[in-house]
Structures are given as structure tokens and as C-alpha cells.
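Figure 6 in text form: structure in, sequence out.
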């Protein structure tokens, strides 16, 4: 196989995100080459200020790929795009696509496209975020016309007498499993695991076996679905099992 002949996907990720690249590599396998640019660090900034900075510097960060030919790019940071709302997010991606000369999608736009293709109208959010950001996420999906049936909060840890500690990068599979087991999930709702930094593939593998009829979505899974079909015309027979579950989706 000529590795350099494969489609090329640019991936923009927060500097401390340990999850996006391994999950994209696992989901896309040998069908797409993935290249990464990272947002700058923001020492001393609060979370909202950091996310607003990511939106402000995104054109420059995409420019870090230089003259490399890319066939498309994904911005693997859902939280910053929640701040834009669905219409602002869509317009921003369109502007970036025109500027770069290749399609640029946010993980949030990839999720909306997957929901539209699957006919998903109802979501239950599985969120590792701080409460204000979870509320912002919910408002984004509802503004896009989706119904949010409920929220399963997944703090990284909880200590009696203290506020829950929210950090997507520190959430474990065991923690996800524990929080889902304690929640009553409506039978007809899709599960959306929010954010690109919470590692979800092991938990999704378990859920897919236990609930074969439930739609399971994550920021990275939806983005890999978009990239596979947009860049590689993905053959579902060769796809990762979690992507094969989305095989009925029409482009």
C-alpha cells in the first residue's frame, strides 16, 4: 500500500486532549491519514475564555498545516463551537472551508449531519462538562431542533462534601459505566457522549453489545463517520464496528 496516496485529514485539537488522535486512528484505520495541529496553550485563562480563544485563533491554527495538501479537516473541540450556536457554527465552518480550499467541519456539525442522516430527533447527553457548559451544550442541540430527553453527568470524580470535579480528560471507562448504570435511559433516545476528550470507545463497545438497537454517538465517532465518507467513500465492510452500526446512513 502506498501510504502517501491515502486521503489526508487535518485534525485540530486542544493542547491537552489525549483522546482525539488515538480514537480517530482506531476508527479510521488505514483508510485515511490523519495529521494534527494543536490549539495554543492559554495559561491562566478560565474555561470560557480558553474556548473563545480557540475560536479566535482557529484560522491561524489551520494555517499551521502550511502548504501540505489536505482533503478535509475536523475541529475536534465541541465545547468551543457550542458557544457559536448552530447557525454561527455552520457559518464559521463554511468560511473556513472557503478560506482553506478544503472542507472544514466541526465535531458539532458532524454530529448534526449524522443525526439528520439517521433520522435521530431525540438525545440523552452523557456529559463530562462543568454544569454551565453542559447547559450550553443542551441549548446548542435544542436550538438545532433536537429534543434533549435528559443528561447523564459524568464528573471525573466525586468526593463527599466537595463539589464534583469535572475534567473530560480524566474520565475513565469505569466511571462512564457506573454513571450509566445509575441512570434510567428512555428506550427511544440516542445517547450522545459529548466532547472529544472523554475516552468512550471501550464503553461504547460494551453498550453496543448490550443494546444493539440504540443509536450511540460521540463527537469523535460522528467526525470519523463524516471523514470516512467525505474523504474516502468509506466501505462499511472495512469500517470499525462502531461505524458499521451507522451503515444505514446515506451520504
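Output sequence:
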Amino acid at each position: 500500500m502506498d501510504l502517501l496516496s491515502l486521503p489526508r485529514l487535518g485534525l485540530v485539537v486542544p493542547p491537552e486532549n489525549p483522546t482525539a488522535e488515538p480514537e480517530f486512528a482506531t476508527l479510521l484505520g488505514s483508510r485515511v491519514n490523519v495529521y494534527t495541529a494543536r490549539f495554543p496553550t492559554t495559561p491562566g485563562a478560565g474555561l470560557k475564555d480558553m474556548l473563545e480563544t480557540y475560536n479566535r485563533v482557529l484560522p491561524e491554527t489551520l494555517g499551521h498545516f502550511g502548504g501540505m495538501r489536505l482533503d478535509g479537516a475536523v475541529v475536534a473541540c465541541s465545547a468551543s463551537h457550542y458557544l457559536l450556536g448552530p447557525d454561527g457554527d455552520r457559518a464559521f465552518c463554511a468560511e473556513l472551508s472557503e478560506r482553506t480550499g478544503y472542507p472544514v467541519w466541526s465535531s458539532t456539525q458532524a454530529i448534526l449531519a449524522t443525526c439528520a442522516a439517521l433520522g435521530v430527533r431525540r438525545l440523552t447527553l452523557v456529559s463530562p462538562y462543568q454544569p454551565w457548559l453542559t447547559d450550553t451544550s443542551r441549548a446548542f442541540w435544542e436550538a438545532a431542533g433536537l429534543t434533549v430527553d435528559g443528561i447523564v453527568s459524568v464528573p471525573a470524580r466525586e468526593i463527599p462534601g466537595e463539589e464534583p470535579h469535572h475534567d473530560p480528560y480524566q474520565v475513565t471507562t469505569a466511571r462512564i459505566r457506573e454513571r450509566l448504570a445509575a441512570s434510567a435511559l428512555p428506550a427511544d433516545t440516542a445517547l450522545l457522549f459529548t466532547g472529544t476528550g472523554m475516552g468512550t470507545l471501550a464503553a461504547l463497545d460494551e453498550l453496543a453489545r448490550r443494546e444493539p438497537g440504540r443509536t450511540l454517538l460521540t463527537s469523535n465517532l460522528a467526525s470519523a463517520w463524516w471523514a470516512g465518507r467525505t474523504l474516502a467513500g468509506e466501505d462499511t465492510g472495512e469500517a470499525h464496528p462502531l461505524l458499521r452500526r451507522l451503515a444505514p446512513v446515506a451520504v
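Caption detail: The longest strand covers residues 147-153.
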